[in-house]
Amino acid sequence: MTTLVHGTDTLTRDALTVLQPGFVGTTAPDWLLRRIGEGLSSVGLFGRNIVSPEQLTALTAQLRAERDDVLVAIDEEGGDVTRLEVKQGSSFPGNYALGSVDDVELTRAVARELGRRLAACGVDLNWAPSADVNSNAENPVIGVRSFGPDPDLVARHTVAYVDGLQGVGVAACTKHFPGHGDTNVDSHDALPRIDVDLATLHTRELVPFRAAVAAGTKAVMSAHILLSALDPHRPATLSPQILTGLLRQELGFEGLIVTDGMEMQAVAATYGIERGSVLAIAAGADAICVGGGLCDEDTVLQLRDALVSAVRTGELPEERLADAAARVRALAAWTQAHRARGAGSVPGAAVQEGTAPGADIGLVAARRALKVTRGERPYTPMTSAPYVASFTPIANFAVGDETPWGIAAELGRLLPGTETGSYDEPSVDAVLSAAGERRIVAVVRDAHRHPWMTEALDGLVAARPDTVVVEMGLNEAEPRGALHIATHGAARVCGRAAAEAVVGTGA
Asked: Which of 124, 186, 231, 260 is catalytic?
């Protein structure tokens, strides 16, 4: 694939080609269009760029009017991490819900419908699925984004997800290689470290990635984590041993290697984004993801110039940059060919439920993922408007705080007059006072990780035994309450399925 080239213009184009930047706004700024004309081959979209399917379709058309083979990427996992429906909550449950059902055909169908909606809006590279084995229940950043703690389960659902996306022409980017599951640090904030032996890595972390490579995933995203058994000095994103030695040579991956966000503190705090980008390309990465936080023209120019300078000084071999750029162009050609064949659906097709055959698959999956545990006393379904007490942890950066979660809105549709309050500390007396005579629905997320939530739940159940508890994170804590509903994720459809169970129409 390597094409050795010479000349400043070609070198500059290659440096632009390997960048996947973001931007601010719902239309493409002039600087972005200008850089696309100069060689920028990829653009990353986030929630701030999307307000509707029609607007998104117009945006991708605007980008492709400048260059018809530009890669348009998005971080759309479904579940807790959604950009398509950042203001509403996702129409699809996330990986943990799908893994809990453990029906690979359901996972494939969900991924296919999600991919269809992306393709219909002109998006052709999805930074998903997460193939991390969530072996550490204290993990603050993966959690419900993983299919689960079992490597084989994660592997088979990763393969189904890749098949579903790529079957409709959207390239999958399996992440976060070589596995972010066994961490208790969020790489957005600091550098996580995994100190397990090689045998454990091969029988746990690497199992889903081997399967994804064998299934033909078009891209793999690296993790900003330090695995001492593989490279004790540099995080995976900057490690030749991991990206070239392990992923390319041992696993035989020939597709696109994309970095996780280069502005994340796990890399940026130690290396800076410019040197980090140079080291990543030198290590074997092909595309630099940046734009979740830094999303302006200056960032693009800084990274472009850093790569060009590194080639000129000999720090970065010219053929390595040329090879990376060639892999970006190869993936762009694959997605362009799928668009030309009409993969996906009608441009502008709505992303809400009920818009196409199979469009309600997300709700079907969310209902199947519910685990309902009844208390010792018979449960009486609610028929009057309750009080919903949401115990709210701080959202991690990947999930963000823009996307609504919980069941109050969905319950309010079934029981008009439902009231709600949000709490970030033990507030039993406050909840009881606000609830009055109403029945209480307590909604939590990862209660096992937050002792104050456990304290609050115990207090509520003791005071009001008819309290319903809805767990929308990892289902690790003991069930409590008159009815305990584990949704295995906080997507909008998970809230709807839980609300149905509360009123007795869904469970």
From this structure: 260
